[in-house]
Design a protein that fits this description.
The chain is α/β, with parallel strands linked by helices. The protein contains twelve helices and 20 strands. Strands 1-2-3-4-5-6 form a six-stranded mixed β-sheet. Strand 2 and strand 3 form a beta hairpin. Helix 1 packs across helix 2. The structure holds glutathione and fe (ii) ion (FE2). The site of fe (ii) ion (FE2) has 6 residues, from loops. Fe (ii) ion binds next to loops.
Length: 359
């Protein structure tokens, strides 16, 4: 059984794919994005997966890969095509290479055209393929830089991708209209650049007249991706870029969280902000010693009651209203804030002390 997630980076319209083996929990990420590395690591964690590798479909021109950051966070291997020429990968891939993750495998097909080193990853049962920027949904990647070559792309699509079974689902590295998936049969029939009876000369003529502006990040992205996304200034690699005032975890929902244990252990100045209603604060669940009560609905108007220099942990009954409080505080410019995971319910269930409340 496969665990599968399609993730999106809105800045660059890039899709990242998480594939995991349900039995062994081994997982790979195809085309992670630098700015989303924390999000992707959180999802891997929440799904109980172990990231074994990041896979690049090509040296991207429009965003920086998250490969190096994910390797740093998780210890995974970086894999990229040999023909792509990027330094710093742990494994270089060529045609017909097999990448195992637990009981599942991805097969490598060389599909040059968008860049000289583009590859497509095909799942073991040919039910899905990840085409990078070779075949896009009813489109194709551009062919005007990085050894781009329309005739090579035509061959890649016709001989490698269209040779897959009709029902094979195709997942591209980008879509600029919000489309998410297609299939071999559909693209063979309806792709306006490469489908039907279109010949190589038709495609070359089409591509050589696209006249697209260069990607905005081209000059930053290509050199960084030729190092597999390793930032060139060491400050950016510093793990202290993550908040370090307590042992926090970033959730896939996008909130920094602290566990009851982490809060109990915390030494040093701290404000506990309880955002429940007054009757809940004094009700059966009780409250944490020293907590300040500001009900969520009043928080935006009462921010001056909170000290700016001390970290804040937001608390509510189950952890949802307090997550909203974290977001309100973030927008108001507070920086050291975390949500108490599970709220008072988890705090009490784990046996931590409360003021008031019933036994
Ligand atoms: N406006 C985008 C352009 C992105 C772009 O050129 N994307 C490449 C893939 S790396 C492509 O092939 N685009 C096809 C298209 O825009 O039709 C940017 O500045 O990043
Ligand atoms: Fe690309």
């Amino acid at each position: 059984m496969l665990i599968f997630r399609q993730l999106f980076d809105p800045q660059s319209s890039t899709y990242t794919y998480l594939l995991g083996d349900r039995a062994s929990r081994a997982a790979v990420l195809i085309d992670p994005v630098f700015e989303q590395a924390r999000r992707d690591a959180a999802l891997v964690d929440e799904l109980g997966l172990k990231l074994t590798a990041t896979l690049e479909t090509h040296v991207h021109a429009d965003h920086v890969t998250g490969a190096s950051l994910l390797k740093q966070r998780t210890g995974c291997k970086i894999m990229a095509s040999k023909a792509g020429g990027a330094a710093g990968a742990d494994r270089y891939l060529v045609q017909d290479d097999v990448i195992g993750f637990g009981g599942r495998r991805l097969m490598v097909r060389a599909t040059p055209g968008h860049t000289g080193g583009c590859v497509t990853y095909v799942l073991d049962d040919s039910s899905m393929a990840f085409t990078g920027d070779c075949l896009l949904i009813r489109g194709s990647g551009r062919t005007d830089f990085q050894d781009g070559d329309p005739a090579a792309m035509y061959r890649s699509v016709r001989e490698q991708i269209f040779a897959l079974p009709d029902e094979c689902l195709l997942y591209p590295a980008h879509d600029y209209r919000g489309l998410t998936v297609t299939s071999v049969a559909e693209e063979r029939r309806y792709n306006p650049r490469l489908g039907g009876d279109i010949a190589v000369g038709d495609f070359t003529g089409y591509m050589n007249n696209l006249r697209l502006a260069h990607p905005k990040l081209l000059d930053v992205a290509v050199p960084a991706n030729l190092r597999c996304g390793q930032p060139d200034d060491s400050a950016a690699m510093d793990p202290s870029a993550d908040p370090n005032w307590a042992h926090l975890r970033y959730s896939f929902a996008g909130v920094w969280e602290i566990d009851p244990h982490g809060l109990e252990e915390h030494q040093g100045p701290l404000q506990i902000l309880d955002v429940r209603e007054a009757d809940e604060f004094t009700g059966p669940l009780g409250h944490i010693d020293g907590a300040v009560l500001i009900p969520l609905g009043q928080l935006a108007a009462r921010l001056e009651e909170l000290a700016r220099g001390r970290p804040i942990v937001a608390v509510c009954r189950a952890g949802s209203r307090s997550a909203q409080a974290v977001s309100i505080l973030q927008q108001a410019g507070f920086s050291e804030i975390a949500n108490l995971n599970g709220g008072m319910l988890r705090w009490r269930a784990e046996g931590y002390p409360v003021e008031g409340g019933s036994q």
